[in-house]
Amino acid sequence: MITRSQILVLILNRLKSLGVELHKPALVEATEQTRLFGDKADLDSMGLVTLIADLEYDLQQNLGRTVSLVDEKAMSRLTSPFRRVDFLTDYLVEVVNQKKP
Amino acid sequence: MNFWLLERFKKYNTKPALVGHWGQFSYADLVQLVEKIESEFKGLTGSTTTTIGLVGDCCPASVAWLIASERLQHWVVPMLDHAQETAEKLNQIHAQWVVITEGGTWKIYPRASTGTLQVESSQSLPAHHAGLVLFSSGTSGNPKVMLQDLSVLLNTYESRHENSLTLLSLLGFDHIGGINTILGGLAAGSQMVIPESRAPEHVITTIKKHQVAILPATPTFLNLLLMAASHRLSDLTSLRLITYGTEPMPEGLLARLRQILPAVRLIQTFGTSETGILKTESPDADSNFLRINDPHVEWKIVDDELWLRSRTQIRGYLNASNEKFTADGWFMTGDKVERGPNDTIRILGRTGEMINVGGEKLMPTEVESVILSVPGVIDCRVFGEKNAMVGQTVAVDVMAATGQNWETLRALIRQTCRQTLTAYKVPTRLNLVSAISTNRLKKQRTN
Question: Is A53 an interface residue toward B (CB < 8 Å)?
């Protein structure tokens, strides 16, 4: 079992290391309100894809099973779960609590 | 040398041609730029044919240099500014001049070249024709250098009819797709808007601001556009036509586009760097089957692979084997296709190992050679992984030296790749494995 606050820490840690890697100080200081996608975001689409792959890796380490975060269903949601850190956190909570298929 | 294009620009006169962060340039402005380049560069080179590395984004100066190079019968090599890759490319093409463009200005630098581009006699251009050199992902680590007859290519746009639609150009000026969009649009007298960034939200703002009607894009970009546009669909009401290509269109995405933008016509385009962009039709808007309808192109399917023969075909690869071209002029595209009803086809993906990240292509070996240079890496295998956001992403299995901390090595591999490669080539997923599942790499390295 992994809690919401643990998931938030995972996301913020990954953003921090991506921020260092991409020389984006704003990502190092990320909060729940940080935008991940769009005009005011510091990540471009490849950065976002990298963040998600890193989080899938972290979740796999934590849960001992593979987790897939991007699929057609996630992409077609009216409010994108990838838009902001808090949305992504909620989405991850939802995904990890889903019963295994 | 083409006369018609500049004559047409003179006729379009004060119509806006290119709009971007550098301002607005009319067709008359473009004529002035082309003429200025011609007199300036003629003074430097006389009538000798030279190879020009044209470094910069799509801007009025880049476009004017492309056109002037054709008129002066030089060889022009457009490339984006990426420190390491640009230097390597300039070396590879033995550029004698480097032109760096920015908005409506440029700087010309002579370059000490150690040799000249070697062209086999069968590939050489007819007299008084200009060359366009483009790079594409090669089967080995190095990108392939392709020579195209720029004069023939330019002439194919003469049949474009005038329109006054505004078009947004997203595709890179170093790719045949981007060059096709620009030349086709200019030949038709369209207004071409070049966004400052390709970030979807910025593009939406640009579409609204300039009332863009035509948007050529990749499926990946359209996917990201829909993600960003969910709260501001009314900003897209000027759109009339979206053309998409360079990677397969997922059916789910096509259905979403149809649902969210019902008033927009969706047309699939198809082309390769080797054959140029083909004229195609999408007979059924709900399906991703397309029909090639181009008087300059013949096509056939051989063992599920699409073969093309076109008038705008490249003269050949200058640094690689030309085995993908048959003696009678067919090009084996490497695209796996299936046949649909009424002479249509559908692109399923690549037959080989090529990875397509949001329409940008690469070969695994290019990334593998970088990763193998990282201390602590024993072996690796790079492959494409399906991704619902950008089509495919780059993944790598890594075999590490004993005692190596995986987190540290992982970070070092990413960092090395980021310093050496363009962003889309940097692996997003890195897996630690105890053995590499194929012997492909070892074979290549012993060759």
Answer: yes
